[in-house]
Design brief:
elongated, 40% helix, five-stranded mixed beta sheet, alpha+beta, Lambda Exonuclease, Chain A
Length: 167
């Protein structure tokens, strides 16, 4: 029995060390990693309210708060709007799943730049408006061009719906 408890103790120390290494490598705030979707597929979260689904890269629990963390492999001098809305969707999914308030999420660009993105009323409104707009586009098949960048146009998932292509 004593030997078994020593084995469990050593295993827990190894796992804790691994978690700390992941947090340090990816510049994740301190707390307990309660979910991850990088080295093995994590479960999909689903929102009944908004009919959206997603999987954040990590969820860190700090003082009874769940914080989603999204890692991006690109560099960015400031958070990109599409990434902010993706993170906001994860905040919403986590709130519904765990029934608790999510104050913010974390965006990490290329393991160097970290941004805490508040999940405040403004961001919540933007998320809801964007979801409504996306549903309308899918329903009507009409989409308005919102940029003048050929590269974005060529790689756009909405290209088949768009009458204003620049590529």
């Amino acid at each position: 029995m004593f030997l078994l408890s020593i084995v469990f103790f050593v295993i827990s120390k190894i796992l804790k060390k691994k978690a700390c290494k992941i947090q340090n490598t990816n510049k994740i705030q301190r707390g307990k990693i309660t979910y991850k979707d990088l080295d093995a597929p994590g479960k999909v979260f689903f929102s009944k309210k908004y009919k959206i689904a997603g999987k954040p890269d990590y969820i860190v629990k700090q003082k009874n708060k769940f914080i989603p963390v999204e890692l991006k492999s690109t560099n960015s001098t400031e958070p990109r709007q599409n990434h902010i809305l993706q993170l906001a969707a994860y905040c919403q999914l986590i709130e519904e799943k765990y029934g608790c308030f999510v104050p913010y999420g974390i965006l990490v660009y290329n393991n160097t730049q970290q941004y805490n993105i508040p999940f405040d009323p403004k961001t919540r409104f933007e998320l809801e408006s964007t979801i409504k707009e996306m549903r309308n586009v899918l329903k009507t098949g009409k989409i308005a061009l919102n940029h003048d960048q050929m590269n974005r146009c060529m790689n756009c998932s909405m290209q088949k719906y768009c009458d204003n292509k620049i590529c």
